Amino acid sequence: MSDPFIELNIDNISSTPLCCIYRKKSGHRGVDEKKNWLIDRFKEGHTYRKIENEETAFIEYAPLEKAWVPIVGDNYIYIYCLYVLGEAKGKGYGKALMESVIKDAKEKGKSGIVMLGSEKQKAWLSDQNFASLFGFKETETTAYGYSLLTLSFDGTLPHFTQKAKEGRNNEEGLSIYYSPQCPYSLPRIEKLKAYVEKNSIHYSFHYIDTLEKAKDIPSAFNNWAVFYNGIFQTVNQIDERNIEKIIKGFSK
To answer: Which of 23, 98, 102, 202 could form a disulfide with 173 if both were Cys (CB 3.0 to 4.6 A apart)?
Structure first.
């Protein structure tokens, strides 16, 4: 196919909608924060490649050393997202996007590419079965069901940090880690904060706004992670009913 993709950059980002949140093109705090986050990341080699029309097909990746994830390794690329949804499916976009990052990694002399997987497909993750078609293999796992999918060009392998492998923290009550990388996170956390304060629920919300904080989180997933009494719960963006369900589960 002819190349139907464009890459976001400082010049076009203000006028280009994000694939994952088309229905909120402007006036949405999460979108504004995401775009500001991207502007700061472009100078670090972050790539956001998307379909030029208003379908949902995009890939987002960065050098692992600068990627906001608790994964360490030398000379790798980390894929944050590779999504093709809705009407964009079945047109070869996913294959073209994956081939583009592999080509980019090889041209830059990278040691390989790594992305997040899981024992069972979970929300917010790219399709790991699709990744296996390109040679990605599971090379490390956490204690709570997540894994690294690695395409190594030279035999080296990246690793989770120890905190991310264990998936625990030492905080009581509800704790959530979130970042501006996902445009849905900030509006969601504002609603949850109002709810927990109204209902006197003990909480700690951690805003991941630096690379150092991102590398130090106790969860494999960097954009959103929920813990209760120190135990990992989910990477799904919960609501009030989910909070009550989690609390009830611990009170039995």
So the answer is: 202
